Please model this.
Amino acid sequence: MMNKHTGVLIVDVQLGMFQSTIIPPVHGGKELLARIASLLSKARAGQLPVFFLQHNGGKGHRLEPGTAGWPVHPAIGPAQGESVIQKLFSDSFKDTPLNQQLQTLGVRKLIVAGIQTEFCVDTTCRRAFSLGYDITLVSDAHSTWDTVVLSADQIIAHHNKTLGGTFVTLKKEIEILFTE
Model:
């Protein structure tokens, strides 16, 4: 599918998204971790660059730096040499070295997975599009929580529909192959 000039972005898959006494774990968390682990296995076998985005929440936030919820989830944790980029905003490019690192490596295509569908995943995809990247959103490897208005499944389906075809190409994790 896409080896040369392709990078993988894993957005905010941090422990605090899976364990909390205040809110339930992210929707479909076990399945999400399994799909991302599979995606990473294929990317690493193809020697693609992988970038982990790590959200820095404010004081008392479940993703506050240095707290138990802040680290990247160990089930999909970074391998030696993979970038971990800390961010403060839903946009993974805003005030981070992500774009510079991608450009340095000659990356033009991005495979995106992670949390939270309607915030960091959506914003990162739209910003990457605006920066000229060719983006594939892994349609079954991003997640969120139920809200009072929509279920997590509805939010995921809505964002797949809204982003797909305009900003991103949608592919299920099983369809992602890093071979040319």
In short: Residues 85 and 175 are 27 Å apart (CA to CA). The chain has a mean pLDDT of 95. Helices lie at 29-45, 98-105, 117-130, 152-163. Residues 29-45 form the longest helix (17 residues).
